[in-house]
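Thread: magnesium ion complex, take 2
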Amino acid sequence: MSDVTPLETLGEFGLIRRLQNTVTLRQPSTTLGIGDDAAIITPAPDNNMVVSTDLLVEGVHFDLTFAPLKHVGYKAVAVNVSDIAAMNALPTQIVVGLAIGARYSVEAIEELYEGMRLACEAYNVDLVGGDTTASRGGLTISITAMGQVPNGQAVRRSGAQPNDLICVTGDLGGAFMGLQVLEREKQAFLADPDMQPELGNYGYVVQRQLRPEARMDIVHELKDLGITPTSMIDISDGLASELLHLCAASGAGARIFSENLPIANPTLEAASEFNLDPIMCMLNGGEDYELLFTVPLSDYDKLKHHPDITIIGNMMVKSEGANLVTKAGQPVPLQAQGFTHF
Ligand code: ADP
Ligand code: MG
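Output below.
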């Protein structure tokens, strides 16, 4: 970058003022945004407010060797919106806490905010406040998202009943394969800094990793179809781990079929090149941010031809446990391998 302004030249308040000028407010429930000691939010009558927070730490949740700051900003907002979506709610506001290491310039933080601004636009969310501090380490981003849902329509993890259909949106394993590709390119880059990254064939999986989307589109579509899921969760740690959460919270068992799990061709190709089992990538690869939900059997006709929702199995009584049924018809207990950062 040619123009690099050290953060000291603006100071904390100068930086906040600059960021404030890039923010647009769209939500009727935002009564007051950035600039006072606190934002004022006025929820619609007969609505519940849902609140969720996520902390993203450089070197743990994102790696700036390969993730552009604009993408980091977009993803930071998208993963928070995804939690709101998983409650069947509409996101309305976010607040952003930043701890900024000394090596960041004003332009770098503006890049980050540009990504957050784009995500706020995409999801129709207002950025209404935050906090800014220096950090002795890298960059830490804490985002708290708020959303609204009419009374009685929030969907929890706990409502799944035996025989309910288990549905998943989009396709799985892509973000995990994207991370494998990026890590490999990073090693090659560290060995030879003149090397140009070869991401050509991996555009899809890399995008799944760097710039995931929250499935707000599905929340709207389910509403239009007249479907209220009995339980729902977003897939941040991998399908197996999330399905076990639904089972535990609902006091139920589950059965999913390996042949039904949705995978995109580029993910399949990448897995084969890396000698990884595609089923494992789908079950245990994290960060796809698709929605996993259950619906009563009676909703089958409404969903069976949906292009972006796949029915992967059904809930069972608790004593059946939670199993993956292989191609050969063999049940294998699901394990929460997840994708642990520790
Ligand atoms: P205080 O000292 O009371 O915490 P600040 O000076 O930190 O106040 O914040 C002033 C205003 O700027 C507040 O409205 C706050 O929400 C907002 N703000 C601070 N940091 C950020 C940020 N990183 N992003 C968005 N808004 C911010
Ligand atoms: Mg403050």
